[in-house]
Design goal:
five-stranded parallel sheet, three-stranded antiparallel sheet, 12 strands, 8% strand
Length: 589
């Protein structure tokens, strides 16, 4: 593979050209987007927008481009002037949207509370959720049932829009006014909303996540925030009473939203912690408004726990496909807010491509297959990125790859643009971001960035690749973790799907090794927690593969090495005993 060409500002005519040449300058310096962001004091997402060509350095910061170029090792005054001229050309490019223009669509990413003005098509279900969350659930007699101990559950398949509904629909509606049951209500001010809202995913340590959220909501007698570690200890010991104690001093009735609740089954490996978390969130319902979002294919997992079985029996809302009217609203209204025209016929083309291919869809007026909303959202975002002149056209939509291919085209373009050695690292990185288990559907897996330190042992560091995929919104980074932006990518990108299909056994073995290594660490590296026998043989054979070995983090490698060392010592001792026994038998003979 040939080296990347040198950057040439003379080749810049458009915004995308600017991003391409600036990326070449960064790659020549050997820096990542994060490195440049740190050197210039820019947010990582802002720097990423410049290198990807989504935005240009604004005229209000005339020295910013020079700072970026200096960070990339460019110091020639003549070239600096050429870059300045190139930036001016890109700003004057016909049809280019204004710098800083907000994308009207979210792509694979979920809507967030701040995106509420752009969230359309779910008005009816949002109003129903608000009613149920604040008043309880009507029972068979038409009376309102007591919500004490029974959270509200929103259940739907992957890609049905649960996260967006809760984050951009329910939460803004509840925080915009008075939450019934509050002593002082919940205001729209930043402080009031921050203290009254707990929005999180369970991750690997759900009790710790919940304790951290409750420590910000509850206060002790002096008005100081409670200590998160104390709250965690209390939750583990007595979830019901600890939950009531934590909320005792809260001046409002808090809103607690647990998104991706299925992570309790996929991410948490401690059954005692899992049960404590389930008991705690159920106990919180009543003193707080508690809402859970659960993927429908984890329904059977939830039914194994009596508290969750009651939730699903008494207080669940099923989120099904949108109607054509709702989809049309979700397409047209964000464009209207962004002051974009929509070409005649584009909505009809989108509805045609989105229409269910079979009669198995639950609702007769459903406009799309179950789980297809992320595909539509990404296709709309890609169409907007291709558009010029303030108008979304059928040609832009077709150029993006359409609903069927937009995600795959984006992912494949990024992957094939990597050097060959980084492609191997990218494959191992994505497989680490997938959870495969024997008794559960495949899902995304959150990966701690600390696990990528020094990984892989050879080749480009995995952490350097994250910036590239984050720029294209295929991977999301937040609070020290990385995660595939949406489960839709697991099936929409054929290359990733093939990686998963051919690596099922390796993924399961790797997951078991990681779980056993974590248990070994929690047991203070007790030798009794090391692998032995057939389990060690399987793990040793798996780790002997260079691809698998290079994807291990430091703890996993130490765990396998310690297990092998212990087994080696045991076998040596066994051989010594056998030799001594033979010498004794010979002497006796």
């Amino acid at each position: 593979m040939t080296d990347n060409p040198d950057p040439d500002p003379g080749r810049i005519a458009t915004q995308r050209d600017f991003g391409r040449e600036l990326t070449l300058a960064r790659q020549r310096s050997g820096l990542t987007v994060r490195d440049v962001a740190r050197a210039t004091g820019l947010p990582g997402s802002t720097a990423g927008d410049y290198f990807s060509g989504r935005h240009l350095p604004p005229p209000s910061q005339p020295t910013l481009l020079q700072e970026i170029l200096r960070a990339c090792g460019e110091a020639d005054p003549t070239l600096m002037k050429e870059w300045g001229s190139a930036l001016a050309r890109a700003r004057r490019a016909p049809g280019r949207r204004r710098s800083g223009t907000r994308a009207p669509y979210r792509g694979l990413a979920s809507f967030q509370p701040e995106d509420a003005p752009w969230f359309f098509g779910r008005t009816d279900i949002t109003e129903r959720l608000v009613t149920l969350a604040t008043e309880g659930s009507p029972n068979a007699g038409g009376k309102v049932a007591d919500a004490a101990g029974v959270p509200l559950a929103v259940v739907g398949p992957s890609g049905s829009g649960k996260s967006s509904l809760l984050r951009a629909g329910l939460i803004p509606h509840l925080l915009a006014g008075q939450v019934p049951g509050s002593r002082d209500g919940v205001g729209v001010g930043r402080d009031a909303s921050a203290r009254a809202l707990a929005l999180f995913t369970p991750a690997a340590n759900p009790v710790a996540e919940l304790a951290a959220q409750l420590s910000l909501i509850g206060e002790d007698e002096t008005g100081a925030a409670r200590n998160a570690s104390d709250a965690e200890e209390a939750l583990r010991g007595d979830p019901e009473s600890a939950a009531r104690l934590t909320l005792h001093a809260s001046p409002t009735r808090p809103l607690i939203v647990v998104d991706q609740f299925e992570e309790v089954f996929t991410g948490c490996q401690d059954e005692d912690q899992r049960r404590a978390f389930i008991r705690a969130v159920c106990a919180l319902s009543g003193p707080a408004i508690v809402v859970l979002a659960l993927r429908a294919d984890f329904y059977d997992h939830a039914l194994r726990y009596p508290e969750l079985a009651r939730v699903l029996q008494e207080r669940q809302v099923v989120l099904g496909p949108m109607s054509q009217v709702q989809v049309r609203c979700a397409i047209v209204e964000p464009a209207r807010l962004a002051r974009l025209d929509v070409e005649d016929g584009l909505v009809e083309v989108l509805l045609r491509d989105l229409a269910p291919r079979t009669a198995s869809t639950s609702s007769p007026d459903a406009a799309h297959e179950i789980g297809a909303l992320p595909l539509l959202s990404h296709a709309l975002l890609a169409t907007w990125e291709h558009s010029r002149g303030g108008k979304l056209t059928v040609a832009d939509y077709q150029a993006s790859g359409g609903i069927g291919d937009a995600i795959a085209r984006t992912a494949e373009t990024v992957y094939t643009g990597l050097p060959s050695d980084q492609q191997g690292t990218a494959r191992r990185l994505f497989l680490r971001l997938v959870h495969v288990a024997d008794d559960a559907p495949e899902t995304r897996a959150a990966l701690q960035l600390s696990e990528l330190e020094g990984w892989p042992e050879n080749g480009a560091p995995a952490v350097d690749l994250l910036d590239i995929f984050v720029d294209e919104r295929l991977i999301t980074m937040d609070a020290g973790t990385a995660q595939i932006t949406h489960d839709a990518l697991l099936t929409a990108w054929p290359r990733l799907r093939a990686w998963i299909d051919t690596s099922q056994d390796d993924l399961r073995t790797g997951r078991r090794v990681s779980q056993a290594a974590q248990a070994w660490a929690e047991a203070s590296q007790d030798s009794g927690a090391l692998l032995r026998g057939s389990r060690l043989a399987i793990a040793g054979d798996w780790a002997a593969d260079p691809d698998n070995r290079s994807s291990l983090d430091r703890l996993d490698r130490e765990f396998i090495d310690a297990s092998i060392a212990q087994e080696t010592v045991r076998q040596l001792a066994e051989r010594n005993r056998t030799r001594r026994l033979r010498r004794l038998v010979a002497a006796l003979t």
